[in-house]
Amino acid sequence: MALILTYSLGNDLYGLEIDAIQEIIENPVLHYVPRAEGVLTGSINFHGQILAVIDLPKLLGFAGNQRDHRHLVLTSEYRSLVFTTCGVERIVNLEMEFLQPPPDGHDRPAVRGIIDFNETTINLLDTDEVTKQLEDIFAE
Q: pTM above the 0.90 mark?
């Protein structure tokens, strides 16, 4: 069993293990980063540490401008990034042995696997893929 925080990206439900999340913060003060554009929406001062705020829906190609006022601060193991989402949902307890690889033709980005929960599909976020995409963007 694993505790998973679910959140929406567009019309899809995604999830991330609670162990990867250091804190969920509401309405952080967002600081301007010169020449920041695209997926980097700014930075926050999080307990004296400056962290980049990444627009996860934009990074993964989801349309729409709706963003939740809550932000996900990832642990240092996950590069201490801050993600915005379309909407933080809830924490669920999932049987990880039922995690399936994405089916052929699955077009959702950065999905490590999928799991069905109460007639809903949860796409588990692949943080390594997200990090790779960010490195590719900022290497230019």
A: yes
